[in-house]
């Protein structure tokens, strides 16, 4: 009899693990024992508040433009009010820039845009940045870095499953089967918090997310950079040559097209088409020195190639423009990778002019 009891112990332990794991489906239990949310997760949690604010702004008669992208889009955040040419649009325009995040990529953009539609908000137009670095599987900031931060719910895991590579698909299956693994659940912590009525506190330290929830601040006159032909020698070496080498090392190293990033880019396109969201996909301008370096690594034609491959030329919701083809008057740069914030009004005008070509843009 004793041998039989010993024989059943592993099965009883397994049953206990399964029962505890399924209890995590109860929100109160999950919120008592999960891991604290990290930067990317906190960002997603903060989005509904932003969309409610945007609904109010839109109802006041302003056009709302949502800007999603990396630090190259974040320059929009450096203007309290961006002057828009009245010949392009008569109504006042509010640019939502808290959605422009340094070191971000298409998985995060997809989750942000999906949270927007889930909240019932539809912008007058969405600006989506397209930069070639974002498609590098070996970029230091990819879907892999965001995945390490996120704890998505079951419906969200199922939604992104098709975009992931086999390794991450297996991880998603494991997370769906074992919720304790997905939420990094600590049973002892859960018991303590349930007994005391506490819940897991969220980490509010946002690494690299300088736009998030920040008040817009007008750029300082001494931070506008230099004209392309007037960089002081030391500044040129530091901001152009040296910074280009660091960009090459961290963002273009061992360049290889990332299928998951391509898939999330396509999911954004499909989402915009499904929900009739007017969207302008744009490629930011970079310094000619860095452009030559990047072109030698990537081939320099990813924008046109992806646009032609994944966007219906007769789309009623999407148009696109590259500002990296000598088609702007902007000649001032902060560094090799970013134009000066003084160029933002021209950029905004060009993107809004492109938006006017969208049939569903009103």
From TrEMBL:
The chain crosses the membrane at residues 6-25. Keywords: Membrane, Transmembrane, Transmembrane helix. It comes from the Bacteria. This is DUF1574 domain-containing protein. It comes from Leptospira kanakyensis.
């Amino acid at each position: 009899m004793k041998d039989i009891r010993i024989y059943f112990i592993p099965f009883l332990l397994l049953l206990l693990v399964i029962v505890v794991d399924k209890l995590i489906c109860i929100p109160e239990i999950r919120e008592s024992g999960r891991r604290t949310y990290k930067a990317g997760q906190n960002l997603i949690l903060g989005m509904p508040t932003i969309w409610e604010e945007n609904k109010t702004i839109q109802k006041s008669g302003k056009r709302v433009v949502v800007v999603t992208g990396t630090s190259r889009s974040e320059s929009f955040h450096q203007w309290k009010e961006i002057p828009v040419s009245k010949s392009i649009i008569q109504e006042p325009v509010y640019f939502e820039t808290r959605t422009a995040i340094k070191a971000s990529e298409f998985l995060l953009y997809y989750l942000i845009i999906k949270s927007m539609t889930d909240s019932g908000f539809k912008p007058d137009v969405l600006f989506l940045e397209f930069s070639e670095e974002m498609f590098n599987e070996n970029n230091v900031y990819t879907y892999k870095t965001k995945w390490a931060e996120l704890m998505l719910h079951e419906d969200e895991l199922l939604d992104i499953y098709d975009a992931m590579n086999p390794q991450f698909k297996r991880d998603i299956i494991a997370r769906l089967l074992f919720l304790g693994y997905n939420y990094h659940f600590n049973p002892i912590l859960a018991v303590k918090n349930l007994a005391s009525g506490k819940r897991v506190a969220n980490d509010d330290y946002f690494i690299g997310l300088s736009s998030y929830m920040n008040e817009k601040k007008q750029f300082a006159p001494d931070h506008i950079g230099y004209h392309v032909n007037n960089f002081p020698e030391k500044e040129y070496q530091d901001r152009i040559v040296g910074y280009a080498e660091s960009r090459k090392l961290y963002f273009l190293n061992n360049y290889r097209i990332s299928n998951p990033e391509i898939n999330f880019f396509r999911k954004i396109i499909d989402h915009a088409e499904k929900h009739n969201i007017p969207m302008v996909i744009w490629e930011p301008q970079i310094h000619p020195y860095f452009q030559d370096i990047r072109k030698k690594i990537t081939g320099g034609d990813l924008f046109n190639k992806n646009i032609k491959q994944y966007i219906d030329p007769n789309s009623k919701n999407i148009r696109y423009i590259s500002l990296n083809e000598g088609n702007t008057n902007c000649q001032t740069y902060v560094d090799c990778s970013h134009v000066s914030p003084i160029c933002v009004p021209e950029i905004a005008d060009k993107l809004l002019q492109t938006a006017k070509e969208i049939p569903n843009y009103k």
